[in-house]
Amino acid sequence: MFLLDVLLNGAVLGGMYALTALGLNLQYGVARIMNLSYGEFLMLAAFMSFWLFTSYSVDPLLGLAVTVPLIFLANWLIYQIFLVPLVRRARSRDALEADTILFTFGLLFVVQGGAMLEWGAQYRGYSFLAVPLHIGVFTFALNRIVAFAAACTIGFLAFAVLRFTRIGTALRALAIDPESAQLVAIDVRRYSALAFASGGAMVAAAGTLISMFLSFNPTVGITFTLKALIVMVMGGIGNMAGSLLAGVILGIAEALGAYLVDPGLTLAINYAMFLLVVLLRPNGLFARA
Amino acid sequence: MSAKSLIAVSIGLGVLFVLPAALPHFANRYAVSLGCAILSYVILSTAWAMFSGPTRYVSLATAAFFGIGAYVMAGLASSLPLPLVLLIAGAAGFVVALVVGLSTLRLSGVYFVIFTFGLSELIRQLATWFQINITKTRVSYIFVKLGDNELYYYLVVLWAILLVTCALVQRSRLGFALRVIGQDETVAKHAGINTTLAKLSMFALSSVFMSVTGAIMAPRWTYIDPNIAFNPLVSFQVVIMALLGGVGPLYGPALGAAPLVLLSEYLAGRFPYHFSIALGICFIVIVYLLPSGLSGLLERLGVYLRPRAPLVD
Description:
- The complex is a heterodimer.
- By secondary structure, chain A is an all-alpha fold.
- Chain A is 76% helix and 3% strand.
- In chain A, helix 1 (2-30) runs antiparallel to helix 8 (188-211) and helix 2 packs across helix 9 (221-235).
- Chain A starts with a helix and ends in a 9-residue tail after the last helix.
- By secondary structure, chain B is an all-alpha fold.
- In chain B, 46% of the residues are buried.
- Chain B starts with a helix and ends in an 8-residue tail after the last helix.
- Classes of the chains: A mainly alpha, B mainly alpha.
- The A-B interface holds A 28, 34, 85-86, 94, 97-99, 101-103, 105-114, 116-117, 226, 229-230, 233, 262, 264-265, 267-268, 270-271, 274-275, 278-279 and B 56, 58, 103-104, 106-107, 109-111, 113-115, 117-119, 121-122, 125-126, 128-129, 132-133, 236, 239, 243, 272-277, 279-284, 286-288.
């Protein structure tokens, strides 16, 4: 029964990883921007939800309607103002990657430093739906269940949009080949900006959901960036369904590792998995050989 | 390195070396300790640029090697003579770099960045875990009597060795191979360069200098714990310093390291968050305005100022 608890907590966390990895995959797989400040927007969304809840008693699920559009807009502006010049001047994909890594590193420090100045280093959290939910003999925290359900809904919605709409098709075409996408009249800059901003929206949603059940401070961003990266690589770059699945796998593996081995070694488990995947299956767990 | 710049560098090093001895009254303890901080970052960023400059592999593993050196010092300083400890520290860094490099230098681009960062964090977590669960201590004390003055001399000597090594490597086949890899790795492979071997040897060589620096700097703390020794900020600062200075010429990283250490000395203690913002802005400025760093800017100025510069020296 205890093991089941562990598995469930792992799955909840995995749902969050899945969402962040999906967003990062939109930014890196589609827009071709390696965004190392990605997790900072998760942190910002968590703080926004915190203030909305504690100052204006806005339910974090309703708060999504504030955090997601705001961070979507912020990311769209970042793409248009800062990243377009880099995309224009880049001679190769490697050069673009080096430039964007440096730029987003800078952004990471600026956002994190600003957040530290504003809010200080102490961990914050709020109590939302922190009530036990009894199903048969099992007891679950309601906020985790709600967060997980919301993450699943958002993940599937995003997946459906990518799979079945015109915009989604255009984005997938960009992921496969941005050069040829232009031949079928896809406006690369517009859709890249859209993909980048949507990635931001995903991470904002994840941040809001995470703030419901985990405490956070301005430094948590980088951890989520790293995990999103690991999950994205595990699932395969450009493979959206892969990201969703790999996220849940990582969450469960982490929870199991913390339970069976030692909670101090979760990061070690993360990197061991990352290295194994990169060395053995560099195109992702689910790539066709 | 041309004969002229060789002379300039030797004069500079000579001045650095005699400075505290010649000015015992002016060079107070604070100045010497600041000098140590600057020199250590100059060495770290020059060593970083030695590998990452030509290959364009952005490594964030500096803190890992620095910490390994610091821990070697903490473990052996009381039982072995200092030069031997430094040699062992260098050797430890070399071996770890070989093992890590063999598995990771196949990665490129962002994979390499993330993995090297993860490596430092991983070592930090493992060291913390080890100290809490196995040795049951939180910190390692460093029992060694070494003043800042002696550390300073060690650092000057290390920097001199590093510069000579860099200059030799730049002129060697290895240096050429690395530059080709930086321009286009596929081409390098087709030209018959053993890219893995070239990258691996340079990665290991630069790690030696990082580890020795860690060992030299360790006595400045009376004790170390994994969070001090493997501080990830070191890795980030080193990248910014090297890029701010420019990774082209040998003196480039030093140009970036000195002002940033002064800035961190001024800001990091009192306003750590302002310092973080300043670092971030540095990154952004480098990307948009100074793609070849301060040294690139200087050399461009030099070209404008010289009446008719010959194209080759």
